[in-house]
Write a structure and sequence with these properties.
alpha+beta
Length: 89
């Protein structure tokens, strides 16, 4: 998933929890310098893994669009950037 300045991708796997939920992780990088801007994660329980991945990918695209709009192109800007469902690591 790419925009003019950013690229987002999912991490290699899914973290499964004992209660039946699972967490998906993704990253957003600056395409020009290759540095990580930020991370996003979401926990799902009411969807299949396939459905959750589709929803997560849509969220990442929405977040990248917001980053482009507000010119969030480095981690310092990301730290102060507040968007819906922001996860803190």
């Amino acid at each position: 998933m790419k925009t003019k300045n950013l690229e987002a991708y999912l991490s290699g796997g899914v973290e499964k929890h004992l209660n039946g939920t699972f967490t998906i992780y993704g990253y957003i990088d600056n395409r020009k310098n290759g540095e990580e801007i930020g991370r996003h994660k979401c926990t799902y329980g009411e969807y299949t893994i396939k459905e959750a991945r589709q929803r997560f990918e849509k969220e990442l695209i929405d977040i990248m669009d917001l980053c482009e709009e507000y010119k969030i192109f480095n981690n310092d800007d990301w730290v102060g950037f507040d968007y819906p469902h922001k996860a803190t690591f």
